[in-house]
Amino acid sequence: MQMLKNKVLLTASLAVFAALLGACGGGGTAVNSTTGAVDPNETAATVNGKPIKMEDVERAVKQQAQGQESKMSPLELAGARLQVLQSLIQQEVMFQKAEKEGTVPSEDEITVEINKQKTQSGKSADQIDREMKESGMTEAALRDSVKKALATQKLVDKITGKIEPPKDSEIEAFYNGNKDAFVKKRGVKLAAIVIDPSNSGEGDATTDEQSAIIKGNEVIKKLQAGQDFASVARESSEDQSRFQGGDLGYISEEEMRQTFPAQLVATLMSPDTQVGKVLTAPMMGKYYILKLQDRSDKDEAVTLESPGVRQQVTDSLVENRKQLLSASYQAIAMNEAKIENFLAKNVVEHPNELSGARPAPAPGTENSNSTANTTSAPAATPSNVNTAAAANTNAAANRSAAANHAPANRPITAANPGSTNATRPAANTSPAR
Predict the structure, then answer these.
(1) Residue 427 burial (CB count, 10 A)
(2) Global pTM?
(3) CATH, residue 71
(4) Are both 66 and 143 inside the same structural domain?
(5) Is residue 373 in some structural domain?
(6) What pLDDT score was predicted for residue 96?
(7) Residue 173 falls within a domain, yes or no?
(8) Quick one: pLDDT band at residue 210, thresholds 50, 70, 90?
(9) Is 133 exposed, middle or buried (0-12, 13-18, 19+ CB in 10 A)?
């Protein structure tokens, strides 16, 4: 379950790139209709008289677009700005509420949180400084952003602190009404150590194929020497799952068949494959060292007395109430605030001024993938309340699938990184667990 304070109210990073490009919109009074350039000192909007500058909007757009905003048309840029601005408005509304409720963090708390985020990113100090510079993020702007995020988190905690645990009768009614969700399907529990040949910034020391192979074989030697898999994952994996000791969670056979190749599924589900076995598997240009942690050979119904189930239902019901309360609080706060959105006004006043033409590609890049996705996508909303999903003991998120596999006693090589054929899934969806 994802806490609402991370999912709903921390709206500085709310808008996904696809949603940004899909939104219709325009620019402020200083927008150049040909290039889409803006005056960073222009006021994009005000919240109860406090201005939100265009420089803040531009910085957020640049971060969301990951440096690709130069390939967008003025019309697409305007849509991106409007979507980002709406998120910044929501953030400012909640921060002003936090100020009134006395939940603004101290400077020490801000410093601790920034250091924590930098450490968890797995990136070097030089890497972080370079990325901040490229996105136009200054240390002062970073501290301000973290301050507002922490203030909102503390506000959410304060207003949802009145939520009481559900009664036993409610827990039992929820279970009886959702028995289909309480079935542990045939499947496996996996952990992984990920070695990435690219310079992904995920805490990796590997930047090419050769260094990845060397590191992968070093990891395998450590495991063969009896070192703990979770400890090695925390130390060596170049994936966010390293924070959970490489744990990818439980994956049903049905879910595996949607992304895993049939041969790997068969191996993992075979009684001949012992629990605890370690396999290597290449996918998406990365090397996965997988450990089979557990396997269920048949579907099993679980009861409220099964380990962790009653607590899971309790947590789900409490969390859903918190989400609903927080979303309602935010809706009221937005209604009470006096908001002036100058970018939106400019669209209404000048609907035909922004060009939809993208900049011409540089010579030799005509066949590159299109950067701007103009397909409309829904923006994130503050009311995504799912009342049943969190209690499903079999609910596993989409995970990265290994395309091939081989026992870990076989070294990784460039030609044969995992053993068999190199079929790979279309996308890496491994969650941080």
Answers:
(1) 11
(2) 0.60
(3) 1.10.4030.10
(4) yes
(5) yes
(6) 97
(7) no
(8) confident
(9) exposed
Three-state DSSP state, 294: strand
32 three-class SS: coil
Instruction: Tell me the per-residue pLDDT of 51-99, one tens digit each, with 9 for 90 and over.
Output: 999 999 988 888 887 767 778 888 888 888 999 999 999 999 999 999 9
Handedness of CA 415, 417, 420, 426 (dihedral sign): negative
Residue holding tokens 């609907």?
351
Range of the domain at 247: 183-301+396-407
Both tokens assigned to 85: 């601005």
Give the three-class secondary structure for 13: helix
How confident is the model at residue 202, as a pLDDT? 44
Asked if residue 190 belongs to a domain, the reply is yes
Read off the CATH number of the domain in which 250 is found. 3.10.50.40
Q: Do both 118 and 60 map to the same domain?
A: yes
Secondary structure letter of residue 357 according to DSSP:
P
In this structure, the number of other CB atoms found within 10 A of the CB of residue 310 comes to: 16
Residue 430 lies in a domain: no
Bridge partners, 189 (sequence order): 250, 294
- Alpha carbons within 13 angstroms on the beta-carbon side of residue 201 total 12
Q: Both 9 and 92 in a single domain?
A: yes
Question: What is the predicted pLDDT for the residue at 325?
Answer: 95
Rank 2-6, 106-110, 299-303, 384-388 by mean pLDDT and report only the highest. Answer: 106-110
